[in-house]
């Protein structure tokens, strides 16, 4: 259960904010040979690893149109409607992120501007192990489509019968993604990173996964392939005051704890009575949770903190921790929201569960974990876009700006830089 810390001194915050330790040395030793095999043997290696790790040997790696039709017929109507509503909300939010930057004249005759262009080829990884994350299909494929990516490839592991979860296929088809490969794990990441006969090499890889997928993404990034962000186990920090509903807070904490045994949940409360009430509710709700064992293990390295000055010290600790998800389960959450500096996504008030962002409110659920919210943003439309700067200088503009460039180039002892200006000025 949650370990409790009352008014901990700042000097030990760095220790208290640590996530469950993960050693990647052994994982890297397992993942590197998989990447090497995919680079060397392509589809052959991919089929071999799929049989080894997923229990199915795929003669055909790509999902067929018949499989899409079968999947749609297997989805209940109410789930289809829920997926389509979520799709609509996510589209609205991400379309609003489009930017039209006008040209700027930085000085007379010197004009600069920036143009947004889609990344040509993107690869989406969708886990389908203990939980088939069809919601992640929406979170990644929708902004990729809005950005205008020319090719969107999706990889997801098949079950032992060779099928990908029907909700994943339905969500993908709704988003216009039709090239889906039956492959998971590090082998799928390597195939997207370096290409095979069946799978085109992509420019950037997106999506969550287990520790092997995470390490594979980190390794291919070192080899020159872009990834969405560093990612690790899921986490949430809930700030609670006397107005909080213990059952709500407990449910929010458990919703993250059930993600995996290595997840972490944090409660920051105004007093110990709130902590006791929430822990009592957690014990009650755990009894009916199918993923009880997994959640219980996550709770064993999770923590509760008491800060009587919730708006001051409590918020300082939250920013120090930099949670993936931050829930402000308090009165007047807008006052606290103004103080948020580090967080992946923020949920305000008693009726805004983190589950809303995971599925259907419209915001993206692919977020930085493990403290990376100090420097990284979650996935957005910008994640699928590259921005190119342009500039154009007139003759009169160069006459004004040229001497400035010459002087700076000369000071840096880069004579060719200076001459590129001088040779032009001599003609004017």
Overview of the structural elements:
The protein has 428 residues and is α/β, with parallel strands linked by helices. The chain folds into three domains: 25-227, Nitrogenase molybdenum iron protein domain (Rossmann fold); 232-377, 3-Layer(aba) Sandwich (Rossmann fold), CATH 3.40.50.1980; 394-425, no CATH class. The chain contains 17 helices and 14 strands. The protein has helices at residues 13-16, 25-41, 43-54, 65-74, 77-95, 134-147, 166-174, 185-194, 211-222, 246-257, 272-286, 292-299, 310-321, 333-337, 354-359, 395-411, 415-425; strands at 3-6, 104-107, 110-118, 121-125, 151-156, 179-182, 204-206, 226-227, 235-240, 264-269, 303-306, 325-329, 345-348, 385-393. The chain has a six-stranded parallel beta sheet, with helices on both faces. A five-stranded parallel beta sheet has the order 6-5-4-7-8, with helices on both faces. Strands 2-3-14 form a three-stranded antiparallel beta sheet. Helix 9 (211-222) links the parallel strand 7 and strand 8 (226-227). Helix 4 packs across helix 7. It is globular and about 85 Å long. The protein starts with a strand and ends with a helix. The model has no long low-confidence stretch (mean pLDDT 96).
